[in-house]
Amino acid sequence: MPAALATAKPAMPAIVISPAQRIGLSGGLRIAVRLLAMMLWLLICVPLFYLAHALRRPNPWPRRFLAGIGWISGVRLTVVGEKPQGRAFLIANHVSWIDIPVLAAACGTAFIAQDGLAQTPLLRHLCAMNDTVFVARHDRTTVRSQVAAVRHALRDMGALTIFPEGTTSDGTDLLPFKSSLLSALEPIPDPITIVPVLLDYGPESPAIAWIGVEHGLANFLRILARARPIPITLRFLPPLSGADAAGRKAIASSARTAIHAALSPA
């Protein structure tokens, strides 16, 4: 169910804030309540997932589970733009783990994730339930098989999302997009729509972002400890076409330009 693009080495500097200093007693209580709610929601969703799977029906439960995780965490989502129909490859900026339930709730997408996630058995199992495609970015000997796996997923799934920055940013700007992560789009499988997507947390971005040397678990708990909701606007931008979709380098450049323009409108 949950699937995220783990970051092996954060690329943007940040002021290190101790989670303990931020959380406090009231924050700790919010964490406990939200974790309990997440576990109960998981216990409800998993049997229903396997029931739908056994009946060989379209399985809505990964999306519903992740949407519930986002709501429990305090997400208040606004969707702008036309959601992709049919098979789509989504190219999004990346701010925090909360991006995953937001995107899944909006369009039921699966994700391309770094294979480090697969090292934890429970997380690997939950990711597999959401049809996650794992890639080993630093293992060039398996590039061909990874490209084949992504192309297979694009053929079989409704939507597949990648975060081409390769790590999280602070949400106020974008890191360079790594075109090598888009190798599976050469040539573009037909029919596939390539859609840039902006995750915009507005003024709350620096407080949500997982950057610097903050541990992933610390970011997770810090967000669960928040008293304020997490307002996020998810913007589906116009699909890429023509020269903008002519190869992975053009796709990376065009998608970044479109997302950056939406993030920083004139």
Describe this protein's structure.
The chain has helices at residues 19-54, 61-73, 99-107, 121-129, 143-156, 205-208, 216-224, 248-263, and strands spanning 75-80, 88-92, 110-114, 133-135, 159-162, 193-200, 230-236. The chain has eight helices and seven strands; from the N terminus they run ααββαβαβαββααβα. It has 266 residues and is α/β, with parallel strands linked by helices. A seven-stranded mixed β-sheet has the order 1-7-6-2-5-3-4, sandwiched between helices. It is 41% helix and 14% strand. The termini are far apart.
List keywords for this structure.
disordered N terminus, alpha/beta, 41% helix
List the helices and strands and how they pair.
Elements (H helix, E strand, L loop, with lengths): L18 H36 L6 H13 L1 E6 L7 E5 L6 H9 L2 E5 L6 H9 L3 E3 L7 H14 L2 E4 L30 E8 L4 H4 L7 H9 L5 E7 L11 H16 L3
Parallel strand pairs: 1-7, 2-5, 2-6, 3-4, 3-5
Antiparallel strand pairs: 6-7
Helix pairs in contact: 1-2, 1-7, 2-3
